[in-house]
């Protein structure tokens, strides 16, 4: 191989590395942890307020019931989205929300799914079931241009933030009892920030979602 071709390969390698690092840098990464334990927090919703950026189109989502639990436990949707509530249990559920962002009340029989509910007001809808006290779920209705929910490692990667600094806020179901408050970052977020957020949770973790023995007998009686 000649000296010239060695040089050429070197330049190509440099170009490739430069390109790779600039692509990798175009993402902000946020890790959310529990301040008391340091454990990563899944199901934290991260909102970034990017003024002027287009907002995501409304979508159609589903929160189904199986084994007397809601799935998913936390959803985040853009304002104007519709959510349906299919019952995949053999028993009845009576799903409601009294939250200002979405007040509704649905009596759910198997295979009989009512029309989806429209969520056009930003905020958090806390869902419950009149029959099963332990059933709880949350729908975060967002008007932000960018939102995401943390994965099992407590992380979100925001790959399409515009340049500049943006307001950052984080919500988690265990932040406080009304489930309506957000943690606001004192520092704005840049498009390449790698940020750790540690939340002080005041609501204890719900233990087993297993229905009580009495509840199980009741469910069994209902399914007969
Ligand atoms: Cu129920």
TrEMBL record:
UniProt signal peptide: 1-27
Matching SUPFAM superfamilies: Carboxypeptidase regulatory domain-like, Cupredoxins
Top-rank taxon, per record: Bacteria
Gene3D superfamilies, per database record: Cupredoxins - blue copper proteins
UniProt entry keywords in alphabetical sequence: Signal
Coiled coil: none
Keyword NAD applies: no
Name the record gives this protein: Plastocyanin
């Amino acid at each position: 191989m000649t000296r010239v071709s060695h040089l050429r390969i070197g330049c190509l390698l440099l170009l490739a590395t430069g390109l790779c690092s600039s692509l990798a840098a175009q993402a902000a990464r946020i890790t959310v942890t529990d301040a008391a334990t340091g454990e990563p927090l899944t199901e934290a919703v991260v909102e970034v307020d990017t003024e002027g950026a287009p907002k995501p189109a409304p979508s159609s989502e589903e929160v189904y019931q199986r084994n007397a639990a809601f799935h998913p436990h936390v959803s985040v949707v853009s304002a104007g989205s519709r959510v349906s509530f299919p019952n995949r249990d053999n028993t009845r559920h009576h799903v409601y929300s009294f939250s200002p962002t979405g007040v509704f009340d649905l009596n759910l029989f198997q295979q009989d799914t009512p029309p989806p509910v429209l969520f056009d007001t930003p905020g958090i809808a806390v869902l419950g079931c009149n029959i099963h006290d332990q059933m709880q779920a949350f729908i975060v209705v967002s008007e932000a241009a960018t939102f995401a929910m943390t994965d099992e490692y407590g992380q979100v990667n925001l790959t399409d933030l515009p340049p500049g600094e943006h307001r950052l806020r984080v919500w988690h179901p265990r932040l406080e009892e009304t489930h309506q408050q957000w943690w606001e970052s004192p520092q704005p977020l840049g498009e390449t920030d790698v940020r750790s957020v540690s939340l002080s949770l005041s609501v204890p973790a719900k233990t087993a979602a297993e229905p009580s023995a009495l509840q199980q007998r009741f469910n069994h009686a209902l399914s007969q």
